[in-house]
Automatic annotation (TrEMBL):
Assigned keywords, A-Z: Isomerase, Metal-binding, Zinc
Cofactor note: Binds 1 zinc ion per subunit.
UniProt-listed Pfam families: KduI
Pathway assignment: Glycan metabolism; pectin degradation; 2-dehydro-3-deoxy-D-gluconate from pectin: step 4/5
Function of the protein: Catalyzes the isomerization of 5-dehydro-4-deoxy-D-glucuronate to 3-deoxy-D-glycero-2,5-hexodiulosonate.
GO molecular function terms noted in the UniProt entry: 4-deoxy-L-threo-5-hexosulose-uronate ketol-isomerase activity; zinc ion binding
Cofactors: Zn(2+)
EC code: 5.3.1.17
Stated family: Belongs to the KduI family.
Protein name: 4-deoxy-L-threo-5-hexosulose-uronate ketol-isomerase
Coiled coil: none
Catalytic activity: 5-dehydro-4-deoxy-D-glucuronate = 3-deoxy-D-glycero-2,5-hexodiulosonate
Length: 278
């Protein structure tokens, strides 16, 4: 089963007057994992799709949705998957790829069939991002030891973290999709600080490994007009090109970032100093 919803893009000036309920309705994706189903949110920010798949006791197929007007989901798209649960399997046009927790799979444009399964009674949680594609690139698995790892932050500022680039142009050929996984070290809570924007790319953030009863506060909005959304484990948030995307939790946590837009230049960003935010 594939469930889906549609989100329009918001003008930054309009978003300044949104209250809590409106912010959550427009940007938060609260439920990504439902037993034996695919959950998809189609966004007008670069026509990005965010989703989740939770195969429990049967195979789950990725099906096309009405907004695509295509016979298959990937006829004009590319797909990135990061497993944030137990071991699972993804079958791409008959070829099986096993993914452990925090491993990724890139699936290129033109693939006809993508099927998700659990392995040996484990419970995988497959987090999906998809963007329009103009060319077909080969399907490729990215294991933990193939990731490009960067140490970031400082315990002095409570933001020491490990950034794992998974689906990026230095590892995998893609049209525009990029994805990675960041892990906050124990005792550290701030991510993506100093904050930044990048007008040529939008992003989606997915927070996981958040302890039960704890929360992550995701900061968004224009640098001079910031807003916030409190989030729980296994929730995602859309981040427009005009918005910062930073967060702070009541415990350490991990998150998957995904982006699409005009370029694949990871360092293309406009940094906002912490004391310049409003």
């Amino acid at each position: 089963m594939t469930n889906h919803e549609f989100r329009y893009a918001a003008h930054p000036v309009d978003s300044r007057v949104y209250g809590t309920e409106e912010l959550r309705k427009e940007f938060l994706i609260p439920k990504l994992f439902v037993k034996n189903s695919v959950q998809l949110t189609y966004s007008m920010y670069d026509r990005y799709i965010v989703g989740g798949v939770m195969p429990v006791d049967q195979s789950v197929k990725l099906e096309t949705v009405p907004y695509l007007k295509s016979d298959n989901f990937l006829d004009r798209r590319e797909l990135g998957v990061v497993n944030v649960g137990g071991k699972g399997k993804i079958i791409v046009d008959g070829t099986a790829y096993e993914l452990a927790k925090k491993e990724a799979l890139y699936v290129g444009q033109g693939v006809k069939e993508v099927i998700f399964e659990s392995v040996s009674g484990e419970q995988p949680f497959f987090y999906l991002n998809s963007a329009p594609a103009h060319k077909s690139f080969p399907t490729k698995k990215v294991s933990a030891n193939e990731a490009e790892v960067i140490q970031l932050g400082d315990e002095k500022y409570a933001n020491k973290r490990v950034l794992n680039k998974l689906i990026v142009n230095s590892i995998v050929e893609t049209c525009q999709l990029q994805m990675g996984l960041t892990e906050l070290l124990p005792g550290n809570v701030w991510n993506t600080m100093p904050a930044h924007t990048h007008n040529r790319r939008m992003e989606a953030y997915f927070y996981f490994d958040v302890e039960e009863g704890q929360t992550v506060c995701h900061f968004m909005g224009e640098p001079q007009h910031t807003r916030h959304i409190f989030m729980e484990n296994n929730q995602a948030v859309l981040s427009p090109e005009w918005s910062i995307h930073s967060g702070s939790g009541t415990c350490a946590y991990s998150f998957v970032w995904g982006m699409a837009g005009e370029n694949l230049d990871y360092s293309d960003m406009d940094v906002c100093a912490p004391n310049e935010l409003r």
